[in-house]
Amino acid sequence: MNAIVGLILLYTGNGKGKTTAALGLVLRAVGHGYKVVIAHLMKTLIYRGEYVGEYLAIKRFLSDHVDVYSLDPDQHLTPRDVFRMALSRAMEIRPFLLILDEINNAVSSGYLTTKEVIDGIKSLPPEVNVVLTGRNAPSEFLEIADLITTMESRKHYFDRGIVGIKGLEW
């Protein structure tokens, strides 16, 4: 039997793969039958007029286990709105995993404060594990994290002008 831990995992850095790593944890958790809440704080679910691949996969295969919240221009949602909705849902269903995607960027851009994020995390049930992603992680997040992975960009196809590849980027 697993102990209740409530770990905080932080994926940051200027390299590609932070959200992808978090989504890998979603697959792992759902594979074990756990519930997950995902909040995309700086992204919509639509790119170039189509839903992004991860949302399509979640909707098709994982919707019984995963709740997704994101910016919605039609509803005029802010990153703070998305954060609060995801936090509220996490309080309600007590998921194994709460992904706060691009939360670091939301804080560095001034949409949220580190205090309100940390207070929100502290208010969660103890069994909820939290993943924080995005560039420019605040020092306060580095202090509270149980795991820190820094993605480093050593080479990227963006530098050759290759951008927005369906299935790789979105």
Task: List the topology elements.
Layout lengths: L7 E6 L4 H14 L4 E5 L5 E2 L2 E2 L1 H10 L3 E5 L8 H15 L3 E5 L1 H6 L5 H9 L6 E5 L5 H6 L2 E5 L19
Parallel strand pairs: 1-7, 1-8, 2-5, 2-6, 6-7
Antiparallel strand pairs: 3-4
Any overview of this molecule?
There is one protein chain. The protein is an alpha/beta fold and 170 residues long. The chain contains 6 helices and 8 strands, in the order E-H-E-E-E-H-E-H-E-H-H-E-H-E. The protein has a 6-stranded parallel beta sheet, sandwiched between helices. It has a two-stranded antiparallel sheet with strand order 3-4. A hairpin with a 2-residue loop joins strand 3 and strand 4 (50-51).
Task: List the keywords.
21% strand; two-stranded antiparallel sheet; 170 residues; alpha/beta; single chain; six-stranded parallel sheet
What's the rounded overall pLDDT mean?
A: 94
Order of helices and strands: EHEEEHEHEHHEHE
Report, as a whole number of angstroms, the end-to-end distance.
37 Å
Shape: globular
Please give the count of helices.
Answer: 6
Main sheet: strand order: 5-2-6-7-1-8
Tally of DSSP β-strands = 8
Beta-strand level of the residues, as a percent range?
15-25%
What integer value in Å does the Rg equal?
15 Å
Structural class: alpha/beta
Largest pleated sheet: 6 strands, parallel
